[in-house]
Amino acid sequence: MSKSPYEIIKHPLFTEKSSVLRGANNQVSFIVRLDANKIEIRQAVEKIFDVRVKDVQTLIVRGKIKRFGRTQGKRPNRKKAIVTLHEGQKIEFFENT
Questions:
Q1: Are 58 and 80 in contact (CB under 8 A)?
Q2: Distance CA 74, CA 36 (A)
Q3: pLDDT in tens, 17-33
Q4: Which of 50-73 are b and which e, b meaning 16 or more Cβ less than 10 Å from the residue's Cβ?
Q5: In terms of CATH architecture, what is 5-87?
Q6: What is the pTM of this model?
């Protein structure tokens, strides 16, 4: 079963670190599905944003244990993808922020 590019990439990630990476290294960050691999992420970004991807780095962010009154709960794990774009490529969605 093939996944749609819009199912693979959940949403962009806007943090201080991601804005520094965007300016210095031409990298953008996304939250992606846990079962997505680097090839699927590369193809999804190239198809959705019409850019050329140079490299993809992924990491799994483990969910934190949080307290809700007396009980404890755990936030879900999530996967982050840091995508490096080729020189001269940019995603307009990030440039307006």
A1: yes
A2: 22
A3: 998 998 899 999 999 99
A4: ebebeebeeeeeeeeeeeeeeeee
A5: 2-Layer Sandwich (3.30)
A6: 0.86
